[in-house]
Amino acid sequence: MNNCDACVNYVYDDEYECYCCLVNLDEDEMYRFLSGTQQACPYFRLDDEYGVVRHQN
Q1: pLDDT (tens digit per residue) in 6-28
Q2: Tens digits of residue pLDDT in 38-54
């Protein structure tokens, strides 16, 4: 399983005062996520703040 804390889709929601995933999972994806049968999140993207800077060099 990927680390959600390092994902660009995992953001703080001021309204709920907690971190939430922005990805809308369908029913099958949610089942696989909650049951732990899926090895890695297909929507995981590393939140790399410095990626843009490295790309510019």
Answers
A1: 899 999 999 999 999 999 989 99
A2: 888 889 988 877 765 66
Tell me the CB-side half-sphere exposure of residue 55, using CA atoms within 13 A: 5
Residue 34 CA, chain-centre distance (Å), reads 15
- Nearest partner of 41 among 19, 15, 23, 20, judged by Cα: 23
Higher per-residue pLDDT: 55 or 1: 55
Q: Where are the alpha helices (DSSP H) in 1-57?
A: 27-35, 51-56
Q: By CB neighbour count within 10 A (0-12 exposed, 13-18 middle, 19+ buried), where does 41 fall?
A: buried
| Distance (Å) of CA 18 to CA 9, 10, 21, 40 | 14, 10, 10, 23
